[in-house]
Design brief:
407 residues, seven-stranded antiparallel β-sheet, 7 helices, 22 strands, 35% strand
Amino acid sequence: MKKLLLTILVSLMWSNISIAEVIFDKWKINANEAAVRVEKLGESDLSGAFTYALLKKNNKCDLMTIYFSSMSNGKYDLKELLGLKIPIKINGMGPIEAMIANTRPAFDAKTIATLDLSKEQIDKVKNLQNVTIQIGDPRPIDGYDFESVAEKIKIDFVKVDEFDPSEYFSNLSVTWDLSKNRAAVDKGRSMCNGYSDKKITSESNESVTVKTGGTNEKKYSLFGVFIGDDVNDYQPSNKDYIPGTFIIQPPKPNKDFILYYAGIDKKNNNIVWIGGIHKKNYPLGNQLTTKKMLSVATKCRFDNKEYVRMIAKGKQFEEFNYDMDDFNERLDLNELYIFDGDKVDYSNMNIKFTISIGCINKDGTIIEGEEVGARAHIKLFDFRNIDQLKKEEDERIKNEKDNSGLN
């Protein structure tokens, strides 16, 4: 029963029906009905977040619980260890008692599908879990010594006779930079009484209504480029930086992006999806391993998921429904579905659009001479005719193949 109650409590605090989210000096602050999470991503490969969970009560936050998360090594299902007390050291001090509070898959199936992995590697990645670990009980915010951990903080798992962390975790030591932690918590505390005063808007996406064959049709856009328009309206170039797409010139470019592209329906050149590539490069360094690529991609997504939320919260999607299910919390999720009406239904019939962020580098470099790295690709995809488009594309590819001598 204690384990069940713990799971329910932590699940509520990590619920992704988000009231508001802001970014404050590299701290991510996420509010829901139960808590305000103030968190910072770790510095080492595939490390998780350090979190101050500010507990809501009577429209204010007086107490907080401290958590950190770490990646499992995939050997075991750590759900069996929920509620287990384990020893850790903080900046060499301790051991201190901590508790395994929650687990969830580290990577979703769609993210895994984007990676060039063998079946054996895929099986290993599927077993990885992101493990949330609680440090101590809820404590008063006022009076807590934030300054003592306001810079670098290092947490080490400690091996004891009853618990060998190397059997369960990929990284036995994780480091965070907690600079400006008190200011970030104060910012989060200001959100405890309801919605944040920050308005997320974008002038780069809007919808228009046009007459087509005597009927009104609503068209949707990103960077001023409308889905359904002829790609030739946007000065397309087939430089083919990204295979199967056209580089385009959008009417409403964003200062944070350096390249824009579109995918088309090949039978009529109409735009099916629109994408933009962010200007910030995340260097991969000399060690181009799968682990390094995943780590850099995770950091890239963490820094840039706000663009997905900005698009979804634009006026053009007010009549639709989107579920932030795990999107705000899980760093591996890279796609937000836009549904028709108020029903969350993942069948193709009900999904109208997807907004995605991709950070896996498959395309080389954009700027000549720059270091190979990952950039955020933000994309709006029209899902309304996906089945018909797929059928037509499969038929087109089939007809283009030379079957001489094959039948």
